[in-house]
Every structure is written in C-alpha cells, then in structure tokens.
Amino acid sequence: MTGSRAMTALVRPVAAPIACAAVLTGLLSAWVATGGGGTLRRMPLKFELAAVSAPGTQGAGTAAGTYLVIKNLGGPDELLSARAPASRRIVLTRRGTQPLGADGMLQALPIPARSTTSLSPLGADLVLIGPGSLQVGQAVPVTLTFRHAGRITVQFTVTPPGTP
Known about the structure:
Strand order of the largest sheet: 6-4-9-10-1-3-7
Distance between the termini: 86 Å
Oligomer: single chain
Number of strands: 10
Number of domains: 2
Radius of gyration: 27 Å
Number of helices: 1
CATH class of the largest domain: Mainly Beta
CATH topology of the largest domain: Immunoglobulin-like
Structural class: alpha+beta
C-alpha cells in the first residue's frame, strides 16, 4: 500500500462520525443560543421567617397579615403578586407614604439588589383576604411572583394572632 492509500484507508472510517459530531455540535449550539436549552440560574432570593398571623376573634373570612424576610443575593427585583390556595385573594399593602395604585394597594414592591426586605403588618405586607379557617402550626403555600426571579412558592407557617 502506498502512503496516500494508507492515509485514505485510515481517514475514511472516522470521517462520517467526525462530520456527524460537527453537525450535532452546531445544532446544539443553535438550540442553546435561541433559549431552547433553558438557563442555569441560581436562586438569588432566600426566604426566612415566613409566617401568616391567624385572624383574631373575628374568625375566618377576615384578613390575615404575613411576616416574611426576603434576602436578595442578586440584582434588583420586584415582588409583583402572590396567590395561595388558602385565600380568596392576596393583596400587597404598605403603611406609610408610599405611592399606592388606584385601588389603594401597592402595584409592586421593590426588592433592592443585595439587600434584605422585611414584610410585616407594620410596613409592607401581603394580606390574605378571606383566608378561611387557619390553624396555628398549619403550613400555607404562597406562590410569590417576582419580575425577574419568576414564581417561587414559599411555605408560610400559621402563628397565633399578631405574632410572627
């Protein structure tokens, strides 16, 4: 066998797999570049002291305030809304001089970058309207919707009236 024939005999069996690998690499790169591969995102938000204060003596059907500490480890974000199966509706309120929407509620709560934001009935708060019967110690899943972090479900623990 001459040198060129020997080289052809060596290259021919590996040419098809190499061409397939190159085509597949290109297709996968295009899929990831267009967002098809999803994104690897670390959770920039951490949650602590998630509690729902059970309604007082007025009983079920009233409102229940919440306590929550949000630690933002990333860039700025906003809390846009919340929902829970244990409540007809959840509204975002704030005591003080913050601008409110036409319905008297906050439209969004800014969550500054690399900061800690606390929610409580004394300031910014998520209020469960018509929470039904809540038992102290019960876990209540609340899905929070953030502008950048998306939807995150946090387990709130029901506490005695007026306590975090």
